[in-house]
Specification:
Blueprint: H1 4-16, H2 18-51, E1 60-65, H3 85-94, E2 98-104, E3 108-113, E4 116-125, H4 128-132, H5 147-152, E5 156-159, H6 161-168, E6 177-180, E7 183-190, E8 202-205, H7 206-213, E9 221-226, H8 232-250, E10 260-264, H9 265-308, H10 310-318, H11 323-363, H12 388-414, H13 418-423
Parallel strand pairs: 4-8, 5-7
Antiparallel strand pairs: 1-9, 1-10, 2-9, 3-4, 3-6, 6-7
Length: 425
């Protein structure tokens, strides 16, 4: 049975070779430390990139008309296409995958309240626009455009926080009237925008904007969400059917991708997801490679240890020591080195990642605003921590590898006869 004397003997052996034991253990600790640190960095990068797209639906598609580039049935190329009202209604009618849908009429004008003014964009949209683009409201800040506003062509407006701040200062804008160009609009809401962007638009009912700014018909783009379209093949098939239905209505070649501009967030999110998975896979390969180097170091040191103690092993066998006790002695020494230094490496790695995360949280870097407009207030690194279960599992795997690192040299040693071992110098 393994007792305290065996542990004392192992400790004595390790004390005699302090530098060798330290360097062996350091290679193990460094391997697990690098694995944990690299995984934390990879998670931080992934969290940062995905945080930038937190307010973007991963199944959103946006379309806008452009110019044809191919002739079609006697019609010349380079024709400019325009969206018609029927294009909006045909989406849900012809494509059951469509869930939410909104058309947009863009208009830039000067908003005026008393002596204050703000020049910005005023978009005419449908109620679904808020759910598609995650337009949110805090309690007591009003509402978004609704169906009644659309049907009655009401002159109501939803302001951005920056517009409300400039026009009304400390006053409550709800219920007040602002002048947009020459038309008076009643403020029914102020949506939430933590970026307080100067470029964030105001919103008015689509029907009102179409009547005032677009001669009562047509619009500039369509945005909608889809369901049941997840894989790349399903996305390509859906886009093809969509282009074909628009080609029939607007008389252009269905293969002419220049005719209709299309932005599919599902493709981008899938691309970013694959990119992040590739980075994490690379990190795992590098980390496991570093860890393997540590295990190989342990195995080599155990080979040297067994060779140095070959004469001692022969004497033990000559006085009646069982091969299993010798095997156990060497394996436990290997486990002690890998477990002790592996634990130190794991704790150091977790401590580093948690320390960096604490500093980032205290400095506000983890809560930095993101999204809004492209390139505005972007963050690339956020919460660089590693899952505790993964760190512990890696350490356990390291200890198991330590068992094998000590087992094979020990097995080789116990197979040598006592007389032959004692002859070894």
């Amino acid at each position: 049975m393994f007792d305290f004397d065996n542990l004392r003997e192992i400790w004595s052996t390790m004390k005699k070779n302090k530098l060798r034991t330290f360097l062996t253990g350091f290679s193990v600790a460094w391997g697990i430390f690098m694995l944990v640190a690299l995984l934390g960095a990879g998670n931080g990068l992934k969290n940062g990139v995905m945080y930038n797209f937190r307010d973007m639906a991963d199944n959103r598609i946006e379309m806008w008309p452009r110019y044809t580039s191919k002739p079609w049935r006697g019609m010349r190329p380079n024709r400019r296409l325009t969206f018609e009202d029927e294009d909006y209604y045909m989406l849900k009618r012809e494509h059951p995958e469509v869930v939410l849908c909104s058309a947009t009429v863009y208009h830039s004008d000067t908003l005026t309240y008393n002596r204050e003014y703000f020049t910005g964009e005023t978009d005419g949209v449908f109620p679904d626009h808020a759910r598609i683009n995650f337009v949110q409201f805090k309690t007591g800040r009003g509402r978004f455009i609704n169906e009644a506003d659309i049907l009655d062509r009401r002159k109501v407006i939803v302001l951005s926080p920056r517009m409300a701040e400039v026009l009304f200062r400390d006053k409550d804008p709800l219920g007040a009237y602002v002048r947009c160009g020459r038309i008076m609009f009643r403020v029914v809401g102020v949506y939430h925008d933590k970026n307080m962007s100067n470029n964030a638009p105001a919103y008015i009912p689509f029907s009102t904007a179409q009547l005032l700014y677009n001669k009562g018909e047509g619009f500039y783009n369509l945005s909608f969400t889809v369901k049941g379209v997840t894989t790349e093949a399903e996305n390509d098939a859906f886009e093809q059917r969509l282009r074909e239905s628009l080609a029939r209505r607007h008389k252009f070649d269905p293969t002419d991708k220049s005719a209709i501009g299309m932005w599919n967030t599902s493709s981008e999110m899938r691309m970013f997801g694959n990119m992040m998975n590739g980075i994490l896979l690379f990190i795992w390969i590098v980390g496991i490679g570093t860890l393997t180097a540590g295990i190989v170091g342990v195995s080599n040191i155990m080979l040297v240890t067994v060779r140095e103690r070959t004469r001692e092993i022969g004497i033990r066998k000559a006085i009646g020591a069982k091969p299993s006790s010798i095997l156990k002695l060497i394996i436990v020494e290997s486990i002690l080195i890998t477990a002790t230094f592996g634990y130190v490496g794991m704790v150091s790695g977790i401590g580093l990642t948690e320390g960096i995360d604490y500093i980032m949280t205290a400095s506000g870097a983890n809560n930095a605003p993101a999204g809004g407009n492209p390139g505005e207030n972007m963050t690339l690194f956020r919460h660089p921590t590693v899952n505790l279960g993964i760190a512990v599992s890696s350490t356990i795997l390291l200890i198991v590898a330590g068992v094998f690192a000590g087992y094979f040299p020990a097995r080789k040693a116990v197979k040598v006869s006592a007389i032959e071992a004692m002859r070894t110098e």
